[in-house]
């Protein structure tokens, strides 16, 4: 039995991996001695070996033999695959320039520490990822507002737990882990808190026993925050010492929010003014207060300003860098940083020449990397230019990005060379030229650092299936072949890990023995260091944004397709549509081909309030179509009491590995085909994936023969 750390989601759980005498992994269980997860394990973690040993796993590099998407593959040697990539990449760099090669990645997975660095070192600004819709705008916003990204102090390592916990647009306590926090630990923090405030259109599990559930209208988060800030200032409930000494722009904020009364917020959000007032005062007066937040905030045209408003509320409430509040973790000493959150240089922006940065395909000033919808469009129509090659590492954008049809056309019909690194033949891999077999976390030695900066965990290689390779080892080798040695001076993956550990004097096996390392936490670091902003203070009024010509004070933007913005659509599309709330058995598109997981959730579902379903004459399990101004997709109906009336939720990331290559049914129940490419957050490029309008209708008898799975 070996203690390792899981990467079935954003990872944080320490697990026990049990092997038989031949070394085969036979069972994976939770580790009750783990300080990060205290014995928790979810179905994805428990079934990790089902992915590892899956008969459909790609175990050798595969080269396309016929046209793209025709399903004809030939296994080749790694050297041949790497030669091919090297020659295409070199040719494109010479003929067109490095910006014509894009590196795409998915959400935070082990490769994340090298993908942006590789892209920057290559000289390409076109790093493509779902980050504009997830997490990173909050991170950039934090950088601008205070210089670092505050994290919830919910593990009690200081001896202090939060007295008030706010959960805002996040459901990780139900779905798994996120950002380095295990769902179980969030539940624990909610249990221990005196007061809990849940802000979510759905009555999620966290609402059970909570003090306040603010069931706002999807997309109206920023209005709610502005109303709460108004209350905290009007009642002088803010932390005067912190505001006076460590914040700048209070007068401007006070004047700005005067208009945003709880009554004003009630009209927009649908949350009663009195509840807004009480929740705001509770959050301010029951310190230390902390926050768990998520995609409910990110996937909106107001994502950036909502994040700004949240930081201002946290600052006013004195939550910043105090025990039990929202803190900046001190990473373990004597390890070189592996996270861009500790040292920006890790991401390698210093290797990208400024003139190359200018060529990034993104019309948005603070979009992280290339803006995916704009990037895929550019591949098809050549505006501003037409990228020629892409290396997709751990992403399935035909399903997870909007308009998979454009993504697919970009890959299949327009690129000169495409390579995908994955475990399986996915709808995205299926239209590539070359597919590289990727090592699973059970096949990796790792110093697990990415999100969990408050601790570092070890991961041990316990298996090797076929010729799979760690993405990072492959990027290292490609970097050497392309002469990117300045950014990648390490000989190989082991050499890199030895370099990370070097200041500690430990070898990898000595580190692996320890399993976990903690940082030596200090709080209120701003007292000595100030904040890393132009004024040296936490900027309630953002000088950086003002200088960029952006609104320096948070303002609310109504969702572009909503009962308020487009009342003329209501007759045809009477429901508010949220998409992609995370499902426990799956990690985005992963898990549909794991029988033990699929059994837990066999079909793509659309959830709606039971009264709405009844009014439409729809029943549990019935095949329905969800229609928006942009498309129609099919799901099975699930009457769900957690949803307020008038709001519908369609699951994302559905494909059917049991169906035929190359599509694997990726366009029948694809929630991302229900959106257009017109509406974005003007600052970050985020998309309103949780606040559209739709109709839900029964599929006619004749049509119902086309099943979803
Ligand atoms: N409508 C809607 N769309 C959404 C969302 C939503 O809420 N609504 N959520 C969005 C969010 S938050 C995100 S982060 C994105 C996620 O988007 P992606 O990260 O693109 O998610 P996946 O589609 O699961 O793609 C991951 C692929 O990589 C493979 N893979 C897994 N681990 C590794 C690895 O270590 N290396 C390699 N090479 N391959 C690996 C998997 O088999 C899978 O095929 O989706 C977004 N899409
Ligand atoms: N099991 C599992 N775990 C995962 C993932 C997975 O795919 N599966 N994905 C991982 C990734 S990449 C991410 S980013 C995280 C995301 O995890 P979460 O942040 O929890 O994301 P979601 O489940 O998409 O949405 C969270 C909540 O937002 C609410 N919501 C929807 N619209 C709105 C709105 O307009 N306003 C507000 N305030 N709330 C709204 C939804 O009802 C939902 O309860 O999960 C990670 N963990
Ligand atoms: S919550 Fe995430 S890290 Fe924990 S066991 Fe499940 S997949 Fe693994
Ligand atoms: Mo995400």
From TrEMBL:
<dbReference type="InterPro" id="IPR006963">
    <property type="entry name" value="Mopterin_OxRdtase_4Fe-4S_dom"/>
</dbReference>
<dbReference type="Pfam" id="PF00384">
    <property type="entry name" value="Molybdopterin"/>
</dbReference>
<keyword id="KW-0411">Iron-sulfur</keyword>
<keyword id="KW-0479">Metal-binding</keyword>
<dbReference type="InterPro" id="IPR037949">
    <property type="entry name" value="MopB_CT_Acetylene-hydratase"/>
</dbReference>
<dbReference type="InterPro" id="IPR050612">
    <property type="entry name" value="Prok_Mopterin_Oxidored"/>
</dbReference>
<dbReference type="Pfam" id="PF01568">
    <property type="entry name" value="Molydop_binding"/>
</dbReference>
<protein>
    <submittedName>
        <fullName>Dehydrogenase</fullName>
    </submittedName>
</protein>
<comment type="similarity">
    <text>Belongs to the prokaryotic molybdopterin-containing oxidoreductase family.</text>
</comment>
<dbReference type="InterPro" id="IPR009010">
    <property type="entry name" value="Asp_de-COase-like_dom_sf"/>
</dbReference>
<dbReference type="InterPro" id="IPR006656">
    <property type="entry name" value="Mopterin_OxRdtase"/>
</dbReference>
<feature type="domain" description="4Fe-4S Mo/W bis-MGD-type">
    <location>
        <begin position="1"/>
        <end position="56"/>
    </location>
</feature>
<dbReference type="Pfam" id="PF04879">
    <property type="entry name" value="Molybdop_Fe4S4"/>
</dbReference>
<dbReference type="InterPro" id="IPR006657">
    <property type="entry name" value="MoPterin_dinucl-bd_dom"/>
</dbReference>
<keyword id="KW-0408">Iron</keyword>
């Amino acid at each position: 039995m070996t203690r390792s750390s899981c990467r079935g989601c954003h990872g944080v759980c320490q697990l026990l991996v049990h092997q038989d005498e031949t070394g085969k992994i036979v069972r994976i269980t939770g580790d009750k001695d783990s300080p990060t997860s205290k014995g928790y394990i979810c179905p994805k973690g428990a079934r990790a070996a089902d992915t590892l040993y899956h008969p459909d796993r790609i175990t050798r590099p595969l080269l396309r033999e016929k046209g793209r998407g025709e399903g004809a593959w030939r296994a080749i040697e790694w050297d041949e695959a790497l030669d091919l990539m090297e020659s295409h990449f070199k040719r494109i760099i010479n003929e067109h320039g490095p910006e014509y090669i894009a590196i795409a990645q998915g959400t935070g997975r082990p490769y994340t520490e090298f993908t942006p660095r590789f892209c920057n070192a290559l000289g390409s600004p076109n790093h493509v990822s779902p980050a504009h819709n997830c997490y990173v705008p909050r991170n950039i916003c934090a950088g601008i507002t205070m210089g670092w990204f505050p994290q919830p102090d919910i593990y009690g390592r200081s001896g202090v737990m939060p007295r008030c916990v706010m959960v805002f647009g996040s459901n990780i306590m139900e779905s798994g882990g996120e950002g380095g926090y295990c769902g179980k630990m969030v539940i624990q923090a909610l249990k221990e808190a005196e007061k809990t405030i849940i802000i979510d259109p759905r009555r999620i599990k966290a609402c059970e026993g909570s003090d306040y559930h603010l069931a706002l209208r999807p997309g109206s988060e920023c209005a709610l925050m502005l109303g709460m800030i108004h209350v905290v200032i009007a009642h002088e409930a803010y932390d005067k010492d912190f505001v006076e000494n460590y914040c700048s722009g209070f007068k401007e904020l006070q004047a700005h929010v005067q208009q945003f009364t709880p009554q004003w917020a009630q009209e927009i959000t649908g949350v009663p003014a009195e509840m807004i007032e009480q929740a705001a005062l509770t959050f301010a007066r029951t310190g230390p207060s902390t926050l768990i937040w998520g995609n409910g905030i990110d996937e909106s045209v107001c994502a950036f300003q909502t994040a700004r408003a949240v930081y201002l509320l946290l600052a006013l409430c004195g939550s910043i860098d105090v025990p039990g509040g929202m803190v900046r973790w001190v990473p373990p000493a004597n390890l070189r940083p592996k996270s861009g959150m500790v040292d920006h240089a890790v991401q390698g922006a210093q290797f990208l020449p400024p003139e190359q940065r200018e060529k990034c395909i993104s019309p948005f000033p603070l979009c992280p990397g290339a803006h995916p919808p704009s990037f895929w469009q550019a591949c098809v129509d050549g505006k501003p230019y037409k990228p020629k090659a892409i290396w997709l590492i751990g992403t399935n954008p035909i399903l997870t990005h909007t308009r998979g049809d454009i993504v697919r056309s970009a890959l299949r019909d327009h690129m000169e060379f495409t390579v995908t690194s994955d475990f399986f033949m996915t709808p995205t891999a299926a239209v590539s030229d070359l597919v590289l077999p990727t090592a699973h976390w059970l096949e990796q030695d790792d110093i697990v650092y990415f999100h969990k900066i408050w601790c570092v965990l070890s991961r041990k290689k316990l298996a090797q299936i076929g010729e799979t390779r760690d993405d990072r080892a492959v990027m290292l080798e490609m970097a050497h072949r392309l002469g990117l040695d300045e950014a990648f001076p390490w000989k190989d993956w082991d050499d890199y890990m030895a370099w990370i550990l070097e200041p500690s004097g430990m070898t990898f096996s000595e580190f692996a023995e320890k399993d976990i390392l903690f940082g030596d936490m200090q709080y209120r670091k701003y007292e000595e260091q100030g904040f890393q902003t132009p004024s040296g203070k936490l900027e309630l009024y953002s000088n950086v944004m003002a200088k960029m010509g952006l609104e320096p004070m948070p303002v609310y933007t109504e969702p572009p397709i909503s009962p308020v913005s487009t009342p003329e659509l209501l007759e045809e599309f009477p429901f508010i549509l949220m998409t992609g709330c995370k499902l426990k058995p799956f990690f985005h598109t992963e898990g549909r081909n794991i029988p033990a997981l699929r059994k837990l959730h066999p079909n793509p579902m659309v959830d709606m309030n039971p009264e709405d379903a009844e009014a439409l004459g729809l029943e549990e399990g019935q095949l329905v179509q969800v229609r928006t101004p942009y498309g129609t997709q099919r799901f099975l109906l699930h009457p769900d009491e957690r949803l307020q009336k008038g709001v519908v939720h369609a699951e994302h990331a559905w494909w059917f590995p049991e169906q035929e290559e190359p599509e694997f049914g990726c366009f029948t129940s694809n929630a991302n085909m229900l959106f257009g490419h017109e509406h974005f957050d003007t600052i970050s490029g985020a998309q309103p994936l949780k606040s559209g309008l739709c109709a839900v209708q029964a599929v006619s008898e004749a049509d119902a023969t086309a099943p979803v799975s």
